[in-house]
Design brief:
The structure is a single chain. The protein has 219 residues and is α/β, with parallel strands linked by helices. It contains nine helices and five strands. The chain has a five-stranded parallel sheet, sandwiched between helices. Helix 3 runs antiparallel to helix 4 and helix 6 crosses helix 7. The chain is globular, with a radius of gyration of 18 Å. The two termini are 28 Å apart. The mean pLDDT is 93. Bound molecules: cobalamin (B12). The site of cobalamin has 38 residues, from helix 3, helix 4, helix 5, strand 3 and strand 4.
């Protein structure tokens, strides 16, 4: 399994795909395969930061992850089953086009029984509020990895607070993305944060059971 992370980090698509096929044939769970691939993606990010690879490397990594997801997705859908009810409005915030993680979150929510409206990437801040008026979500999920995304997330949170009276019920706001931490979540003012789609689903299942959170937490 660790060699899958290493092959992704080395941007070696052929090897990564072969290893994933072998792991699936050997009965490894799709979820753990995706987790090691994510670990490889983090290493790609570190290589980019050290200028060991360039933008083309990030693009390549995105393609490799997509190929792995194609192989893992059917298994993921079988492994993740649930009957939660709840409506999730999802999108990658303004200025950010990273959507691999957001798409995984959408898949996870859907397979656990949530109804999801996905607004896509680089979503203008007011669009979240407009969509919420029509879709009436229980939860708004904001995705983003860039520094500029954190400001955009904060803008969305502020917009929802300022216009709370225009919505039937204030949705819980959860932010996700591999570069988020407790400090960023505090800055954004979201109710919950996570760096893991499955954890995001668990948080939202609890929200649906118990209602509004008392304070900011990772769940
Ligand atoms: C692949 C990649 C790209 C691809 C994206 C392809 C795509 N369609 O998404 C491309 C090549 C387009 C790209 C572009 C850029 N990138 Co880029 N990219 C990455 C990389 C290597 C991997 C991201 C990824 O897909 N990870 C795998 C997914 C599965 O993980 P994830 O997103 O964290 O999602 C998981 C969880 O966080 C969670 N989740 C995510 N969202 C949500 C939402 C909710 C509601 C929930 C519950 C959960 C959840 O679920 C997922 C599964 O568990 C990261 C490195 C890194 N460390 O993340 C850099 C990284 C994010 N990129 C970076 C940069 C700088 C850029 C560029 C500015 C480069 C440039 N010079 O142009 C551009 C920005 C373009 C833009 N305006 O958005 C920096 C950001 C630094 C920063 N904080 O500002 C990073 C961190 C690399 C680095 N270390 O420097 N990138």
């Amino acid at each position: 399994m660790q060699s899958i992370a290493a092959a992704v980090a080395a941007l070696n698509e052929k090897t990564a795909v072969r290893l994933v096929e072998e792991a699936l044939a050997a009965g490894e769970s799709s979820l753990s395969i995706v987790r090691v691939a994510e670990e490889g993606m983090r290493k790609v990010g570190e290589r980019y930061e050290r200028q060991d690879i360039f933008l083309s490397g990030l693009i390549m990594a995105g393609e490799i992850f997509r190929s792995i997801m194609e192989l893992a997705q059917p298994g993921l859908e079988n492994e993740m089953v649930g009957n939660a009810s709840g409506r999730v409005l999802l999108g990658t915030v303004s200025g950010d086009i990273h959507d691999i993680g957001k798409n995984m979150a959408a898949l996870a929510y859907r397979t656990f029984g949530f109804t999801v409206e996905d607004l896509g990437v680089n979503v203008p801040t007011p669009r979240f509020l407009d969509a919420a008026k029509a879709f009436r979500p229980d939860i708004v999920g904001l995705s983003g990895l860039l520094f500029v995304a954190f400001t955009a997330m904060r803008d969305v949170v502020t917009l929802f607070k300022d216009h709370a009276g225009e919505l039937e019920k204030a949705p819980v706001i959860i932010i996700g993305g591999g570069t988020i931490d407790q400090n960023i979540a505090g800055y954004v003012g979201a109710d919950y944060w996570t760096t893991d789609a499955m954890e995001g689903v668990r948080i939202c299942q609890r929200v649906m059971e118990k209602g509004q959170p008392a304070s900011l937490s990772q769940g």
